[in-house]
Amino acid sequence: MAYSGIYKVKNPKKYRGDFTNVVFRSGWELKVFIWCDNNPDVREWSSEEIVVPYYYAVDKKYHRYFVDLKIKYKSGKTVLVEIKPEKETELPKVTKTKKYMTEALTYVKNMNKWEAADNYAKDRGWEFQVWTEKTLQEMKLMTKMPGKLKTYKPYKPYKNPKKTNK
User: Active-site residue numbers?
Assistant: First the structure.
């Protein structure tokens, strides 16, 4: 379940931007923020401080994309990171439903954003990466996602046994 809040940066010298207003928009982002804050290989990081203009092919207009993270490692490597569920990185299966249309529009928007972010990063000698739940599992930031939850039959109402009078 997604949730949001303000992350309290423990190492403000590593954060680039307003370290008193670092907003996480999911539990996954929170885990990555903690990782960045505590990782000795991360020299500096920021969240939603990089704004990339992108052209959205659906409405034929330019918009602003606030990239989830910018991470600069001690090695000198800089990476722009977007954190998304794996399902949003893949084409949705074609169905004749409203859900398909929503998923398809989300996919197109993500592809437009990520192409712009990739070009933005390459222009600066950086990389752009999309981190999914699989990436976070490989990084040991989260355990494997459970499969389908087992369903249980509801309990029968409790019946008080009749008292016998002797």
Answer: 29, 68, 84
* CATH, residue 81: 3.40.1350
Whether 162 is in a domain gets the answer no
Which pLDDT tens digit goes with each residue over 77-125?
Answer: 999 999 999 999 999 999 888 999 999 999 999 999 999 999 999 999 9
The pLDDT tens digits of the residues spanning 43-86 come to 999 999 999 999 999 999 999 999 999 999 999 999 999 999 99
Look at the chain and report how many structural domains it folds into.
1
24-32 contacts at long range (C-beta below 8 A, 24 or more positions apart): 26/2, 26/83, 27/1, 27/2, 27/3, 28/83, 28/131, 28/133, 28/136, 28/141, 28/142, 29/68, 29/83, 30/5, 31/136, 31/141, 31/142, 32/68, 32/69, 32/81, 32/83, 32/131, 32/136, 32/141
